[in-house]
Design goal:
Elements: E1 4-7, H1 34-48, E2 52-56, H2 66-75, E3 79-84, H3 92-95, E4 101-105, H4 111-118, H5 124-137, E5 142-149, H6 157-169, E6 173-178, H7 190-199, E7 203-207, E8 211-216, E9 219-224, E10 240-242, E11 247-250, E12 257-259, H8 261-265, H9 269-280
Parallel strand pairs: 1-2, 1-10, 2-3, 3-4, 4-5, 5-6, 6-9
Antiparallel strand pairs: 7-8, 8-9, 10-11, 11-12
Helix pairs in contact: 1-2
């Protein structure tokens, strides 16, 4: 399943040392508005059959256009996923009323490691409490908890087990992600994470080119390959990211970007599809 992934802001209130910010920087121009995102989603839905999209960043909850964008996408019948650190999720029932799935970046169950990763002093305890509140307020919401694995920092068996236990307690999916970095001393690739989970009693139940699904009795976990890792350049292109300046680029398949700002602003459906198809070849 492919989708558009809208990077609606490059800004974030965290400073995670490994963050690729979906490969963009804070200096990017913010040209796109909610109607632009609505147009792109409508084209992808009507012409390509893509019925989901993801809002990411940066931290999307910072964006002043977050609410309106969600409303417009929901009105199209699009299933929306939001990727967030949850620190700004004070009123989940209100903020997430149009959302089908939320992916929350947790990365650790240890407060000191959390501060080391995020480089802010917002307590991990508050984030975990917000996640529990979100589940209580929105029992049908799909919640995925993201855990980027960093060698010798958060990769112990004990911490994996605690993270999985917490995810299962609140009926969320535990998702382990390999680190995108040029420093190989910090990285365990996706298959290495799978092997570690197998050592904890998990078994692979399904897999494709970008992720593994594992089970241990009733416990389910997913291991995902980071699409910005250059080691995966030979994999087929999957999703299309949209920067707030109108630049489109693909996940996996090696970095390739096209400028679609004119097509978006002029509501040129044929031209936009041509740009998307360039990325997916």
């Amino acid at each position: 399943m492919r989708e558009l992934r809208f990077v609606i802001t490059p800004f974030c209130n965290y400073k995670c040392f490994f963050c690729h910010s979906e490969s963009i920087t804070n200096k990017i121009a913010l040209y796109l508005n909610p109607s632009d995102y609505e147009f792109m989603a409508k084209v992808a839905q009507g012409q390509l059959g893509w019925n989901t999209c993801t809002l990411t960043g940066g931290e999307p909850l910072i964006s002043p256009i977050f609410k309106e964008t969600c409303e417009k996408l929901k009105n199209l019948g699009i299933a929306i996923t939001v990727v967030t650190n949850a620190s700004l999720l004070a009123r989940p029932a209100e903020v997430l009323k149009d959302i089908a799935q939320i992916n929350i970046s947790v990365h650790t169950m240890l407060p000191d490691v959390y501060e080391q990763i995020t480089q802010v002093n917002y307590p991990l305890e508050n984030v975990l409490s917000t996640i529990v509140t979100t589940r209580m307020k929105l029992p049908e919401l799909a919640i995925h908890l993201n855990y980027t694995v960093i060698k010798r920092l958060n990769d112990s068996n004990a911490e994996f087990e605690e993270f999985i236990k917490f995810a299962n307690k609140i009926k969320a999916k535990a998702k382990f992600i390999d680190l995108s970095t040029t420093d190989e001393s910090l990285r365990t690739d996706a298959l290495g994470i799978v092997r570690q989970l197998e050592g904890l009693g998990f078994e692979i139940k399904d897999k494709n080119f970008w992720q593994y699904h594992l089970m241990r009795k009733t416990e389910e976990v997913t291991v995902v390959k980071c699409p910005f890792n250059n080691k995966y350049e030979d994999l087929p292109a999957r999703d299309v990211f949209v920067e707030p300046n109108g630049i489109l680029y693909r996940s996996f398949g090696g970095y390739l970007a096209v400028d679609a700002l004119n097509e978006i602003k002029s509501r040129n459906t044929v031209g936009l599809l041509q740009k998307i198809n360039i990325l997916l070849k």
